[in-house]
Write a structure and sequence with these properties.
By secondary structure, the protein is an alpha/beta fold. Helices cover 34% and strands 16% of the residues. The protein is built from 13 helices and 18 strands. The chain starts with 10 loop residues before the first strand and ends in a 19-residue tail after the last helix.
Length: 447
């Protein structure tokens, strides 16, 4: 008997629920071209993870070029070291003042993915440029339920003066759909979860959410009938992969339920949105798990994540930094402040390592989800005290679906545009762009 492959767009349906599936062998053509088709069927993904206020560069930068030797700050990447490259020497020239005076934090975020010098205004006439993630979304976003995901851990205003005459929209946005249209990011993991697994009917989705929470049921209970029917068509390997996926979904639900229980406690000192954890690390990890799920189920191939808005002055007491991050970044050479900045930097890298390890644990074809992704992590400021935008702390992880050669420290010529990296990444997404910002070409040494 000949079986037709299952559609890549198969959904498991239930009340208020439309659950996409991970890549399964049963989705591949059953013919002599199956091996070639499997490679084509595994898409490339791109994610951009932003941190504010620069870094303690002495503890960030690897000691030598070539095979990657992890610096003290990058030590948490040990398990995925062979799949990470550190790219030194890259710059965003248009984040410098260029005659506009103060406002480096606003320019840092607004320019990071756009490569464009933002207009200095705190009014409605904001202007930057289309960001690289949205250039990709315009071309490949139609192939997935969501063109892109924009996530964050700090809410950001879209109006008002946040940095020396620059609108708050600049310092709290890295994704720009158009030159005057920043994409707001979602900070509530519960809202992200409901968005990913809703069925586009707001009334049904809300009813599903209320039922699940009221009866302490999983979203998987609502698609159980569809899931059991599908499993009868799958081989043992695909059944195991589906169970692994469902386990990941259920784990996130359990964590969200614990967060909600804590936040609904009437004795809680500070009220938070239902799905936002009080613990910064857990907040970041939940968002990372959501990105991983979205990539695994091909809900989107493009994501941005602002761990904090630029200029953020939140404290990191859990890692021994009771002072504000922005305050410590203005270190003036003081060793104590530099050490505090390094603690924050390492904490952020630990969270990124968690995300990369998660992607690397999800098998896809002959490799892993990390092998079929490009994850750029870093900041738009190098030294927080100098507010400089050259020699930025940037790392690139993943195999880019076989188009990248990671595991290295590459030092590019001083002031090489960061936008050259973006052109190279777009090429690997099948999206051609002539220029971005002040780009001068591609980074040809990535492979």
């Amino acid at each position: 008997m000949t079986f037709e492959p299952i559609s890549r767009r198969t959904l498991l349906h239930g009340l208020g629920t439309a659950m996409a599936l991970p890549m399964l062998e049963a989705m591949l053509p059953l013919n002599a071209l199956a091996q070639t088709a499997s490679k084509v069927a595994r898409p490339n993904r791109m994610a951009f993870i932003f941190v504010p206020n620069g870094a303690n560069m002495a503890l960030w930068t690897p000691a030598s070029e070539g095979a990657l030797e992890l610096s003290p700050t990058l030590e948490p990447l040990r398990k995925v070291q062979s799949k990470v490259s550190v790219l030194s020497g890259l710059a965003q020239h248009n984040a410098f003042a260029l005659g506009d005076g103060g406002g480096d934090h606003a320019r840092s975020a607004a320019t990071w993915l756009t490569g464009c010098h933002p207009k200095k205004t705190d009014g409605a006439d904001i202007k930057a440029g289309i960001s690289v993630d949205q250039l990709a979304a315009m071309r490949v976003g139609k192939r997935t339920p969501f063109e892109s995901l924009e996530l964050g851990c700090e809410r950001g205003a879209m109006a008002g003066n946040c940095d020396s005459g620059y609108s708050c929209a600049y310092s709290s946005s890295i994704s720009w759909r158009g030159e005057s249209t920043p994409n707001a990011h979602e900070v509530d993991p519960r809202a992200v979860f409901e968005r990913l697994f809703g069925n586009n009917d707001p009334n049904e989705s809300e009813e599903s959410r209320v039922r699940r929470q009221g009866f302490k049921r999983s979203i998987l209970d609502f698609v159980l009938e569809d899931a059991n029917r599908l499993k009868k068509q799958l081989g043992a390997k695909d059944q195991s992969k589906l169970d692994e996926y469902f386990t990941g979904v259920r784990e996130i639900e359990d964590r969200l339920a614990r967060v909600q229980a804590i936040n609904s406690d009437p004795s809680a000192a500070q009220k938070k949105p239902a799905g936002v954890p009080g613990d910064m690390g857990e907040h970041i990890r939940l968002m990372c798990d959501m990105m991983a799920l979205a990539f695994q189920a091909d809900l989107t191939r493009i994501a941005t994540f602002m761990i904090a808005n630029d200029g953020s002055n939140r404290s990191y007491k859990d890692v021994g930094v009771p002072e504000g991050h922005h305050d410590m970044s203005h270190h003036g050479g003081d060793k104590y402040k530099l050490d505090q900045v390094a603690k924050i930097n390492k904490f952020h890298v630990q969270q990124v390592a968690y995300f990369l390890e998660k992607l690397d644990s999800i098998h896809e074809g002959e490799g892993t989800l990390l092998d079929n992704s490009m994850v750029m992590y870093g900041a738009g400021i190098s030294d927080g005290d100098r507010h400089n935008h050259d020699d930025l702390p940037i790392l690139l992880a993943g195999g880019g679906a076989g188009t990248l050669k990671p595991g290295r420290h590459q030092r590019f010529a001083h002031d090489t545009p960061l936008n050259n990296l973006f052109l190279s990444m777009l090429d690997r997404m099948g999206v051609h762009a002539e220029t971005i910002g002040d780009s001068t070409g591609r980074l040809t040494t990535l492979i």
